[in-house]
Amino acid sequence: MTLTLTVDGERWRRHLLEVVGRNPGIVPVAKGNGYGFGVGRLARRTQWLSEHLEPSAPPVDLLAVGTYSEVADVATRFHGDVLVLTPWRPRGAAEDAPSTVAARLVHTVSRLDDLVELTDRDPGARFVLEQLTSMRRHGMTRRELEEAVGVVAQRRLRGLVGVAQHLPLRAGSHVGEVTRLLNDVVATGATTRTVLVSHLTPDELARLRASHPDFTIRPRIGTDLWLGDRGALRVTATVLDVHALERGETFGYRGRSAPKGGHLVVVSGGTAHGIGLEAPTGDQSLRSRAATIARGGLDAVGFVRSPFSLDGKQRLFAEPPHMQASMLFLPQGARVPQVGEDVEVRVRFTATHFDRVDVK
Ligand SMILES: *Cc1c(COP(=O)(O)O)cnc(C)c1O
Q1: 4-7 and 356-359: which strand pairing?
Q2: Is the same domain home to 255 and 126?
């Protein structure tokens, strides 16, 4: 009863090395479900990357996690420093990180008060100062950054590692916004010239490096690194059972009667794996998504599209997914699969829990 992520290891590793080569100074991001791989595995892989760099490449010496509770999982597998992306808070989760790792931690500080409080407690703490971007999630305005830089100078803090910018995912260019933010850094009198930044294209990075040669711009990358070569990744469920179904026969938790004849195909993978009612719509245009919603995602007899495919055709849920299995409806005329066959599944990797990750 498994939902399996099978990785073409050689192809995946080649892709990872390529991305690292194209993005000098990269800070890999491993958070949440580890983009489907698990945070621990990504930490081990980051260690491997740090040992397989071109001799001239800057080191991969910093790995980003999302939260303090993720620190323990990576710290034993990756030997460099660990940046926590969620900003430090006085009554926050910082205690969730093992104290033995404290010296390798880089905190994200997004409020002046927090800078004061953090460095009251630990004057040697290392941190990045986060700037507010058009995302408006966390971060300091230019005035606040200026005050923070004042605190750093006044307290002679030596832990300032750089500034951080979290940019929206957007089609247009980030160059204008990053340029303004870098100018703000200079204007505050900050001494650091290191900036950790998300969601810049290689072209944007190259332009910013050319226009700001005094800055070290380090891209934080998760998705494009771990999931950037989808062809190296295959997600499969297994056919667990098949039952012929005549029109009018009842099935499922809700005792629904079959609107037409066919087969019920029971496959592994359910809500516990993150299999949802709605098929992933990432590659759909707004218009076709609206059309799907208007139809309630239903076919003519009221079945909902599933992310499972048989013989290359996306199949319908006979009823909403169960905790660890799903029931699909296969219309008359389609090839009936055997128990034990693989079934292709389209998933959102960041929201899927795999039973197995096989790196071949
Ligand atoms: C998740 C995250 C990233 C990485 O985002 P991807 O889209 O997966 O590359 C970078 N920076 C911050 C602050 C994040 O939370």
Answers
A1: parallel
A2: no
Using left for φ > 0, alpha for ψ between -120 and 50, and beta otherwise, residue 248 falls in left
* Ligand 1 in reach of 222 Cβ (< 6 A): yes
The boundaries of the domain holding residue 195 are: 8-226
The whole-number pLDDT of residue 282 equals 46
Question: In the chain, what is the greatest distance between 2 CA atoms, to the nearest angstrom?
Answer: 79
107 CA → ligand 1 middle, Å: 15
Taking the C-alpha atoms of residue 283 and residue 294, their distance in angstroms, rounded to an integer, is 18
What's the pLDDT score for residue 293? Answer: 46
Distance, first Cα to last Cα, the chain: 20
Task: Report which ligand 1 atom has the smallest distance to the Cα of 224.
Answer: 9
For position 184, what pLDDT does the model report? 97
CA of 222 to the centre of ligand 1 (A): 6
Considering the domain architecture, whether residues 198 and 300 belong to the same structural domain is answered as no
Question: Which residues does the chain have with pLDDT short of 50?
Answer: 279-283, 293-296
Chosen domain end from 197, 226, 255: 226
Among 26, 27, 29, 199, name the best residue to mutate to test ligand 1's pocket (greatest count of ligand atoms within 8 A of Cβ).
29
pTM: 0.91
